[in-house]
């Protein structure tokens, strides 16, 4: 086996100790499922960061790792601590982030986003994707005066979404996170949100005709793991138009990855409402709901309001992020990087005879082992890569900071790790080589 390790990993680091403390004081241990160290290497995962730069992350023990995994869970397509964005944010902080009056930046940002989406007439801002999704649903239901929603994809944690699993706990399986428990969601919401699978136009059509008089909106991700087939998106648009149903595209994740705006423009299918987030603020909290004026104006017939949606940092960061993206054409850069990584994965998997599948759009790529031991193999790769100075698993979210030199280092380390995995698989000793972890409580499983 190769032994070119940069670090000796330990379960007694400052990060692992703090994680133990967190589980005693924080419900669930962390705020986000994807940042729970039990999903990676449990006590051996660095868990907490001290500082960041580009795609570099320093843990609490001052060890530096190259992030070739989630990059802030899709928030930092321009890299961490991007100076052009941080400079504007710091400038506004020095002037004041909050007041009794409104921040002018929210007006500037709304105008810029509407220019990018000329079919839309109004915007509403939030500070998280789940909130933005809830706002879009409330507005759609208010405008249509109907309750039912059809969904395809992942749209957050709010009651309207989790109610999909009230009739069957498996309804949301296949929509990014498997096994979501709708505990605490009122049973009266049962069958108000119904799911359909991507590219399954037959099931979609059946649901439409069965519930067409009660459906307010169809909400879906434009694309995530697989590409649309047989004009799927166009057919969804045609059917929703025919039945006067609002079509909402959730582009919290896909926005600004392949185009300067929504990926919907690539497929030439225009929605009635759209949601942007994650990459919009390059690490600062900002989300936007855009829509046609008549739908957005229904906000006057309901109540949607939040104090911290008015803070200044989010809008300021988004304005600077959009300017930097446009200047560098970041969506082209990260797509090219993603394609290069996918090509490398394909060659390495073929070399070591791994039965895998690569999914997602280039800038948001994933791979899977077609094996019951998939999670064990990914954990082994994460363990090997961590010792080589990388935060890595089966997910790669590209950023402009993943330059040629760093890609070369990643390719070398990843191929060595795959070589070691092949050897462990052949010798059937992978369980011996994996670091022992405490018993992990399995609630939910993120699929990518």
Protein model, in words:
This protein has 448 residues and is α/β, with parallel strands linked by helices. The protein has two domains: 14-81 and 330-446, Aspartate Aminotransferase, domain 1 (Alpha-Beta Complex), CATH 3.90.1150.10; 98-311, Type I PLP-dependent aspartate aminotransferase-like (Major domain) (Aspartate Aminotransferase, domain 2), CATH 3.40.640.10. The protein has 15 helices and 16 strands. It has helices at 14-25, 71-74, 83-95, 105-116, 129-144, 159-162, 201-211, 232-242, 264-267, 293-296, 313-328, 330-351, 374-387, 404-427, 430-433, and strands spanning 49-53, 56-59, 64-67, 122-126, 148-152, 177-178, 193-195, 215-220, 246-251, 273-276, 287-291, 356-359, 364-369, 390-391, 395-397, 445-446. Helix 3 (83-95) packs antiparallel against helix 11 and helix 4 (105-116) runs parallel beside helix 11 (313-328). The protein is globular, with a radius of gyration of 22 Å. The mean pLDDT is 94.
Question: How many domain regions?
Answer: 2
CATH class of the largest domain: Alpha Beta
Number of helices: 15
Structural class: alpha/beta
**Widest sheet: strand order?**
4-11-10-9-8-5-7
Largest sheet: 7 strands, mixed
State the shape.
globular
| CATH fold assignment of the largest domain | Aspartate Aminotransferase, domain 2
Distance between the termini: 29 Å
Strand % is 5-15%
CATH architecture of the largest domain: 3-Layer(aba) Sandwich
Which blocks of ≥5 consecutive residues have pLDDT under 50?
none
CATH superfamily of the largest domain: Type I PLP-dependent aspartate aminotransferase-like (Major domain)
């Amino acid at each position: 086996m190769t032994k070119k390790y940069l670090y000796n990993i330990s379960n007694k680091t400052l990060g692992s100790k703090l994680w133990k403390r967190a589980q005693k004081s924080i419900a669930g241990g962390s705020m986000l499922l994807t940042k729970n160290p039990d999903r990676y290497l449990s006590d051996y995962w660095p868990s907490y960061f001290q500082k960041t730069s580009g795609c570099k992350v320093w843990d609490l023990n001052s060890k530096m790792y190259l992030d070739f995994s989630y990059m802030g869970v899709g928030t930092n397509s321009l890299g961490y601590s991007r100076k052009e964005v941080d400079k504007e944010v710091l400038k506004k902080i020095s002037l004041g982030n909050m007041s009794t009056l409104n921040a002018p930046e929210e007006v500037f940002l709304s105008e810029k986003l509407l220019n990018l989406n000329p079919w839309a007439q109004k915007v509403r801002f939030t500070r998280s994707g789940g909130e933005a999704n809830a706002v879009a649903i409330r507005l759609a239901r208010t405008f249509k005066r109907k309750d039912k929603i059809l969904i395809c994809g992942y749209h957050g944690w709010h009651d309207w979404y989790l109610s999909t699993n009230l009739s069957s706990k498996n309804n949301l399986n296949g929509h990014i996170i498997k096994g979501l428990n709708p505990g605490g969601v009122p049973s009266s919401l049962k069958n108000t949100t119904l799911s359909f699978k991507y590219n399954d136009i037959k099931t979609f059509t059946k649901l439409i005709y069965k519930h067409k008089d009660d459906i307010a909106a169809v909400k879906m991700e434009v694309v995530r793991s697989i590409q649309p087939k047989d004009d799927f998106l166009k057919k969804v648009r045609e059917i929703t138009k025919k039945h006067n149903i609002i079509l909402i595209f959730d582009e919290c994740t896909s926005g600004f990855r392949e185009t300067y705006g929504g990926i919907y423009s690539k497929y030439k299918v225009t929605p009635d409402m759209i949601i942007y987030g994650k990459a919009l603020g390059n690490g600062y909290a900002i989300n936007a709901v855009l829509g046609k004026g008549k739908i957005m104006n229904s906000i006057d017939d309901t109540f949607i309001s939040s104090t911290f949606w008015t803070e200044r940092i989010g809008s300021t960061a988004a304005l600077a992020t959009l300017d930097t993206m446009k200047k560098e054409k970041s969506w082209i850069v990260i797509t090219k990087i993603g394609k290069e990584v996918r090509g490398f994965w394909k060659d390495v998997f073929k070399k070591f005879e791994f039965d895998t599948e690569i999914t997602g759009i280039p800038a948001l790529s994933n791979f899977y082992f077609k094996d019951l031991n998939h999670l064990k193999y990914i954990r082994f790769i994460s363990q090997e890569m961590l010792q080589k100075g990388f935060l890595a698993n089966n997910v790669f979210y590209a950023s402009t900071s993943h330059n040629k030199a760093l890609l070369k280092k990643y390719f070398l380390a990843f191929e060595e790790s795959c070589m070691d995995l092949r050897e462990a698989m052949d010798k059937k000793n992978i369980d011996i080589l994996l670091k022992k972890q405490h018993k992990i409580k399995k609630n939910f499983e993120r699929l990518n």
